[in-house]
């Protein structure tokens, strides 16, 4: 099934205007992270995950939420750098029959596919690896996520941390021998607090 056939089936947030009671969240599956994010991953909003290199455990962080969503909703993975490793995804509880992997031919097509998937109302989660995305493009994606009530996850280079972003949540990930360290750069409704350390699980990496 391609993106167009899937989609055929079926203003800007200001930090002081929302609260945990009025903003829907999806549990991350990690209790400490849920607490720091005010309930979990925001629904109808973007989350940016900034990494210094791909494949350090960023997908593992999303697996509990993606597995939960796949029980009822479609997921779209837009322009991942490598082919998703299907056996590991299935072992994590993701219904592969509800996962669409979209290969794009350039940044403009990637951003278009992300926007359409987020806006569709069909996808519970949309994961994207945009090569280039300025603040205007990110704002369009944030509005699309709001319209489609989808959880959008963008994987971007760590150096983009200094770029302004309308995303509701921004995380910076680092990996060393001790595991995966999560720095919360931005979240709705409060301060991020101290970094969180998680253990890496290689099963949930993508394979080239």
Automatic annotation (TrEMBL):
Q: What is this protein called?
A: Cell division inhibitor SulA
Q: What NCBIfam families does the database record attribute to this sequence?
A: ImuA_translesion
Q: Which UniProt keywords apply?
A: Cell cycle, Cell division, DNA damage
Biological process, per Gene Ontology: cell division; DNA repair; negative regulation of cell division; SOS response
- Pfam families xrefs: SulA
Q: Which organism is it from?
A: Thiohalomonas denitrificans
């Amino acid at each position: 099934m391609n993106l167009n056939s899937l989609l055929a089936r079926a203003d800007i947030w200001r930090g002081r205007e929302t609260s945990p009671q009025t903003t829907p969240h999806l549990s991350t599956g990690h209790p400490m992270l849920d607490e720091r994010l005010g309930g979990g991953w925001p629904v109808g909003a973007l989350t940016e995950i900034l990494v210094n290199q791909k494949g350090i455990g960023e997908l593992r962080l999303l697996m509990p939420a993606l597995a939960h969503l796949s029980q009822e909703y479609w997921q779209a993975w837009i322009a991942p750098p490598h082919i998703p490793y299907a056996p590991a995804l299935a072992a994590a509880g993701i219904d592969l029959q509800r996962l669409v992997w979209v290969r794009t031919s350039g940044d403009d097509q990637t951003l278009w596919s992300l926007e359409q998937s987020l806006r569709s109302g069909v996808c519970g989660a949309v994961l994207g690896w945009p090569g280039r995305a300025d603040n205007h493009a990110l704002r369009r994606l944030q509005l699309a996520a709001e319209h489609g009530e989808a959880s959008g996850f963008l994987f971007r280079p760590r150096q983009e941390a200094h770029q302004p972003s309308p995303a509701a949540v921004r995380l910076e990930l680092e990996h060393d021998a001790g595991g995966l360290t999560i720095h919360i750069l931005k979240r709705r409704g409060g301060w991020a607090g101290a970094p969180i350390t998680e253990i890496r699980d290689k099963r949930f990496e993508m394979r080239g």
